[in-house]
Every structure is written in structure tokens, then in C-alpha cells.
Design a protein that fits this description.
Elements lengths: L3 E11 L9 E7 L21 E4 H12 L4 E5 L8 H11 L3 E6 L13 E5 L24 E6 L2 H13 L7 E6 L6 H11 L4 E2 L3 H4 L4
Parallel strand pairs: 2-4, 4-5, 5-6, 6-7, 7-8, 8-9
Antiparallel strand pairs: 1-2, 1-3
Length: 214
């Protein structure tokens, strides 16, 4: 039987976040999420909004039809790992020579995600309302090619993020990214906070929003 996934949308755009920010990328936004962040910017990817059911073959054909010359594939959501078929989707794109980037909210185990996948894992800060769901055991499945991202709305979030970075020695293991909540915290203010720490934390704004792209 063919594997089908609930898909919110597919599109070709500039990657706006994470280690591959700035690169052209084919996006597959899967439908559904197990969390409910207060400042979520992709509410349309969750219930009760509509989705398409697409097979692995159809998704690969969409990529080929859009731009098979671009080998960067971002699988995002919602939360991609709530669908069991996501693992097969990852494998399908790896088999055709693509570099797969998985954006995940950090609340579901990464144990089954292939090593070669670039994992961009959120750690939810207090302002999201979802910080109790952070699965810190996932740090064991990350390495230097991966990233842990903290979305920051205020100083409390910033201090929380710094504590997690220190407690788990993340700067020696992964790329650490701090991003401001869009239109809730200025990038300049967050940059100044980061500079005050004198730590190699990557400050990042959502490039696609700055450029007004998808």
C-alpha cells in the first residue's frame, strides 16, 4: 500500500532560518501539530484547516516539477514527526540524492531520524506556553551539523535559553540559534543581549519574512 501524508503546502523559496538560511530550498509543510505555541506563525498548518493527502511519489514529482536542480529539501510543519509516513518521506528524498532538513518542535524523539538529516530542533521558551514539552533527551541525537533554535520574546526567554545552553553544553555540540519572535522583540535588542554574553550564539531573523517571501 502506498504511503500518504497530510500536506499543508509545498513551495520553492529561500530558506529563512537555520544552518541553511539563504539557500534556495523546496519546502514540504506537513499538516498538524501536537503543540500550541502562543505566538505560532503557521496556524494554517493545523486543525481545523484543510490539507491534501499526497503520496511519496507525488511529493517527489512536485519537487522535480518545481526545481529538481535544487537538492535542498525542508520538511516542516506544524510538526512533521507526528505523521509516521514522514520517516519514509525522508528516506525517499535521501535516495534521490537530496539533502534533507527537518524542522521539528523538539517534543518528539529523534531516535528514528537518519543521521544524515540536518535537524533543526526548537527548544520552546516560556513565552510559548509549551516549554514543559521540551524533550531534552533529543540532544543525544544531534551533532555539529544540526542546530538547536530558541525563539525569544523577552528577557525571561533569553535567560531561560542561556541556562539550557549552559546546562547541556550545547555550544560544544551543535549550532545554537536565537531568533526574536516576529514583531514582538526587535532583532537589534536581541543582538545586543547576545553580544553582552560574549558567547558564539548565532542571532538570526526570519529572512523570508524580511524579504516578504513565502
Amino acid at each position: 500500500m502506498s504511503t500518504f501524508l497530510k500536506v499543508c503546502e509545498t513551495f520553492f523559496s529561500i530558506q529563512g532560518e537555520g544552518p541553511y538560511a539563504g539557500y534556495p530550498c523546496f519546502f514540504i509543510r506537513l499538516h498538524g501539530c501536537n503543540l500550541n505555541c502562543k505566538w505560532c506563525d503557521t496556524e494554517y498548518s493545523k486543525e481545523p484547516n484543510n490539507y491534501e493527502k499526497l503520496s511519496l511519489k507525488e511529493l517527489i514529482e512536485k519537487w522535480k516539477g518545481e526545481t529538481s536542480s535544487i537538492k535542498y529539501i525542508t520538511i516542516t510543519g506544524g510538526e512533521p514527526l507526528i505523521q509516521e509516513g514522514t520517516y519514509e518521506l525522508i528516506e525517499a528524498f535521501l535516495k534521490v540524492g537530496c539533502k534533507v532538513i527537518l524542522e521539528t518542535n523538539g517534543s518528539i524523539s529523534l531516535a528514528k531520524v537518519p543521521y544524515s538529516v540536518i535537524k533543526v530542533m526548537d527548544i520552546k521558551t516560556p513565552s510559548s506556553g509549551m516549554s514543559p514539552y521540551n524533550l531534552y533527551e533529543n540532544f543525544a541525537y544531534l551533532n555539529e551539523k544540526d542546530a538547536v533554535k530558541f525563539v525569544i520574546m523577552n528577557k525571561k526567554d533569553f535567560e531561560y535559553a542561556l541556562k539550557v545552553v549552559s546546562d547541556y553544553e550545547l555550544l560544544s555540540k551543535v549550532e545554537v540559534i536565537f531568533s526574536p519572535v516576529w514583531k514582538r522583540l526587535s532583532g537589534k535588542k536581541l543582538a545586543k543581549w547576545i553580544l553582552s554574553t560574549k558567547l558564539p550564539i548565532r542571532m538570526q531573523v526570519q529572512l523570508h519574512k524580511v524579504l516578504r517571501l513565502k
